[in-house]
Amino acid sequence: MKSRLLVDELGNENKGGNDDKKPAANETVTGEEGIGDLLDHVRIVRETVLPKRYIAAFDYCFDRAKTRQYFAEKKVRHAELVSAPMLILPVWNAGGKPRIWRQPNPWVGAWEDILKARNGLVTLRLPESLATERAIAPQAIIDRDRKAIARAARLENAEKVIVTVITPEIADDIMTVTVSASLFTRQGLIESEFYTSDELSFPVNSTGETTAWLATEIENGIERVWRTVNAIVVDEKDEIMVSIPADSIAEWRAHLRALRGLPTIDRVRVMQLSREGGVVQLNLSASMQSLLYALEATGLAIERKVGENGVVTLMLVTRNG
């Protein structure tokens, strides 16, 4: 776990002392008692030493196990897993002529402003490739065309696609909008319709403020759900047994390395080895769903396999598509 803190002068100007003396990095760790005990190490990222000023940026790297225990004792729910990229397609559907890239589209503008300053666990982004604009028709997105959504995900290298549509109607300087947001897999399959708002009315001259508020509400909801699903559990952890097929030692080691690098797994224990692979026990620090989300970024997945005798086995597989 890593946190970065920019330090300027560190609250002193070395009055009457050695002007070139640099304060110890751990002197900058302030706040609640015991925080310093959670540190694993401190690294200087950059520094500038002046006659009466010391300016530096440090990386504070915390011990994961100690930090999780600290949060648990303070009854603070937290998540650590950063999502794979999620593509946002904001459609402004005015007069039956849907727009994504062409202006006017205040819905895209609202999302552009939010994402500039966003700092969350969910990796949200707008289309960046000109190829996407040329290949994807807004009407196909409105129609939830599976191939079009999958193509957008592929071109933008996204794991999920969020299609959010505003349909406005204007009468007497009052705009009334219907808003929706839906989540799709990278294969273009619908996962959920997680936001709807019908007949929201406001003055036309406040369109920018209202679309900004709506985008913020949707963005906050996405982040909140992600943090809830991927909340770290310190006590009562789940354990699962997973079969890992492998054709070589290199492939076996690569799979173990990928699993051990996931924040949702506390421990990987090898239980069985054979010529075809092996079986591992995974001690989870979050939910099973969180583990599946974490695997998305690695190109791996866990599938349930039913044997001839009816026994269900969890198997690590390489995803297709």
CATH topology label of the largest domain: Rossmann fold
User: What is the CA-based Rg, rounded?
Assistant: 25 Å
Mean pLDDT: 86
Shape descriptor: globular
Number of strands: 14
Tell me the structural class.
alpha+beta
Strand content: 35-45%
**Share in helix:** 25-40%
The succession of helices and strands, N to C, reads EEEHEEHEHHHEEEHEHEEHEE
Biggest beta sheet attributes? 6 strands, mixed
Distance between the termini: 32 Å
| Proper CATH architecture of the largest domain | 3-Layer(aba) Sandwich
Output the CATH class name of the largest domain: Alpha Beta
Number of helices: 8
What are the low-pLDDT stretches, counting only 5+ consecutive residues below 50? 1-20, 25-30
Integer tally of domains:
3
What's the arrangement of secondary structure elements?
Elements: E1 2-8, E2 39-50, E3 53-62, H1 64-73, E4 86-94, E5 97-99, H2 106-116, E6 124-125, H3 130-135, H4 138-142, H5 146-155, E7 160-171, E8 174-185, E9 190-203, H6 207-229, E10 239-245, H7 249-260, E11 265-274, E12 277-284, H8 288-296, E13 300-306, E14 312-318
Parallel strand pairs: 4-6, 4-7, 10-14
Antiparallel strand pairs: 1-3, 2-3, 4-5, 7-8, 8-9, 10-12, 11-12, 13-14
Helix pairs in contact: 2-6
